[in-house]
Amino acid sequence: MLAAIKISSLKYFTFLLIVFIVSCSTNTSKTFVDSISFKDTLYKTHVFYFQNGDTTLEHDTIYFSPTDSAIDTSNFFYVACKEPCSNQDIYKIYFKRDKVIRLCDSMLQVLSPYKSKGSGSFYEEELTYEHLKEQAVANKMNEPVNVTELATLFEQRLNPLIINSATSDTPRYIITIRATIGTSKDILPSVMTTYNIKNRFGDTIFLSTGTIKEVPLKQPQ
Q: Which phi and psi (to 5°) does residue 82 adopt?
């Protein structure tokens, strides 16, 4: 936890999450060129200052993954948009049903032994994959059961078709930003992952947030 900061962890992460989402949704100063190589990885560092004089660093690792233009729009989808979400700003995120079903079957087989043991984190994962499979089988627009459900599919490297029906804008890559956030005193910095796209006007549009978690990382000497 960020012990050096004199605010609660919940408020701290809520603050960071709000700042991060707002910046991803509206910031046009972040430029990702269209001639991107999917092997490219970018690194950036941001510095936050708090009232008690503590300094918190955010180290961003940014990489890119391709979308899949071969997916047809008969598959189930999620919705993402740039605020205030007018018709011109709504994107549908389509995933292939058969790939999602195979993934869910595989993951449920791995996770099922933990359900009987009452392991909370694994139980939540199992519910997520059960719901994903249910929606894929029914081929319905997916209504997430938790805020990281869409991110689960991104993390499993299921490249979707992303399309704006009103403008025919089809972003060809997803921008993944993995932010490691902590102070020099932290034993366990926190990692937050977000998934974004760039629209045809160059705006970065937020799609989903992955799980915020603490990871054992060595601090630089």
A: -95, 125
